[in-house]
Amino acid sequence: MKKFNLVLFWALSLLTFLNSCRDNTPSIPGWIDQARLNQADKEPQNWMSLGRDYKQQHYSPLDQINEHTVKDLGFAWEFDASSRIGRVNRGLEATPIVVDGVMYTSGAWGVVYAINAKTGEQIWRYDPDVDASYNRKVCCDVVNRGVQVWKGKVYVGTLDGYLVCLNAANGKVLWNKDTFTDRSLSYTSTGPPQIAKKVVILGNSGGEFGVRGYITAYDLETGDFKWRFFIVPGDPKKGFEHPEMEQASKTWDPNSLWEAGGGGTVWGQSAYDPELNLLYIGTGNSSPYLIWYRSPTGGDNLYLCSILAINPDNGKLVWHYQTTPGEIWDYTSTMNMILAELDLKGKPRQVIMQAPKNGFFYVLDRKTGELLSAEKYTKVNWASHVDMKTGRPVLTEQGWYKDEPKLIVPSLAGGHSWQPMSYNPITKLVYIPEIVEPMVYMAQPTYAFKKGTFGTGLNYDGASAPFSLKTKKYTTNHPDTVNKNFLKAWDPVLQKEVWKIENEIPVANGGILSTAGNLVFQGTSTGHLKVFDANTGKVLKEIFTGTCIMAAPMTYTINNEQYIAVMAGMGGTPLSFGAKGTINQKYQNKGRILAFKLNGISTPLPPPYVKIKTPEPPDTPVDPVLVDKGIVIFDKYCTGCHGVGHKFDFYSQYPDLAKLPLGIHAAIKDIVLKGALSRNGMASFADVLSEADVDAIQQFLLSEQKKLWKEENY
What we know:
Blueprint: H1 2-23, H2 34-38, E1 59-60, E2 73-80, E3 97-99, E4 102-106, E5 112-116, E6 122-126, E7 148-150, E8 153-157, E9 162-167, E10 173-178, E11 194-196, E12 199-202, E13 214-219, E14 225-230, H3 243-249, E15 262-263, E16 271-273, E17 278-282, E18 286-287, H4 291-294, E19 306-311, E20 316-322, E21 338-344, E22 347-354, E23 360-365, E24 371-376, E25 383-386, E26 393-395, E27 406-408, E28 422-424, E29 429-436, E30 439-441, H5 469-472, E31 484-491, E32 496-502, E33 512-515, E34 519-523, E35 528-533, E36 539-544, E37 554-558, E38 561-568, E39 592-598, H6 624-637, H7 645-648, H8 662-666, H9 668-674, H10 691-713
């Protein structure tokens, strides 16, 4: 008996030691497991998932920085997260994770950084060395929305579709898996991985380029393939990968445009409920948008624009809710989802909440998918309301643009985009970065899918404010013609606005952090980090950084000192780079991570933006016929990134092609057709452009350059 007690003593001692190591001061860098994540509130000093805890609320119980002390908030440190040498600086959209004093996060292309969270010093850096020609395959910049950290490993999806598992201690690659089913298609990966029990899943992007969305699950330890769930069906004549696709096919025309992929990509922030063992993913828009080409006889087109609850053990669908049946507006449901407990009609409910692009705020039972409520959180005219019996939006005539263009709100930018919203369980409010951006939806008269090219079926010429003469007739006497941007506090129980603050410029601003200090944090396109009173919306602090902020801030403590950190750098939809009023018109778009603390100092500003003078153009005659042809080709393939001189008043990190030096003019065919600058992100367009097309583009650029040169020198 004495011997047994001694063995028991040592066994209990060892167990206590191991638990202590795991729960308090883990000896393995980046050690997070489900037990630790479930008890995240006991470790408020850490930020252990993209939304801090498994509920993904983007809320922290820290309160050292609060409504009384925030006046003393100042700069602590910065980390240079700009892109690699030879590449323009790109958007930064991730929320960092902090575990035991180390910050893990990702930048453009899927580069991963491990940083000392107290000093900002780099511990290690992983660069996937993505082929820069992938720049051509993305609609919305080569961004990456975050990593996951789990049991001493860091997981990241790279732009070129690899799921990479890194050693959290040193950044060494442990395994690397190709997640793309077909590399001849324009797939990319910009979203974060999600861990669910024993698997890690990754989705993809590329809906506007004609791909078919899916998610793939891999073993956390070995990287072995476990299962794949397609979002939309393929051609029924080729069979179905899993039973859910056979069911979904009943909501599509059998003669759908299957070669266009259908869309439904998964690129947003997912969630996992360990109690219910359910993985929640939000799915993307259609491809193409025009259902009369995509699925000629109509149909709901499952599982586009839906929330899916999946059993991670086997990849089987448990329930689904489609926010936008028969989608034709780019109303993705990939926006972040929040798990919470709400009292609804006197009954506690486990809910999942989302504010997708379509303008309705949804509260669902997260166990069953039952619709509990859905109300407009922003201006909406494509539907009047959501029918609570059927769960379907009730469409209006204003939303149907097949027969003639219509001014519709929200636009394809959505009432809320990828920037995370936050739920504060103390105030019981959701804080939403709201967008009000009407758009004239104009269908192209004909549509033909072309592999590897951007093709939604819409005509974007003058579609957004300020509207062109071509589209103004569709906005006459319409109440929704002005672009605006707000931070909105929303009561998810009463489904009503509590307060809202209008931002200075109508460009999408950053994601949200709320804290127990009665504070709400948001970065802006004007280069500010703003702090608001969580109950009233009153601005309590503004810190000017000189850099556009799109990502959501987060917070942590080291040695009992609280920090606020955020990734700063403009990107996303390329045309937003040069939007009037953004701070990258005054300062260079230098990507960086900024950290703040009480009694900090003034924030260092990036170098000033220098507008390039127009070089003297080559003495080459201009052919007006070729110029007109070049305008059409340029608008189709080039405008999204480059713009041209005073035509767009562009402040982009891409070169202004109306200001090309003589050497580039001489080499333009090698650049456009042979990929001479592919390393810098300028891929070859030989598959879609001919030498004659390049001649026409160059004639257009020359005509613009001659105009600019004359304006600047005479």
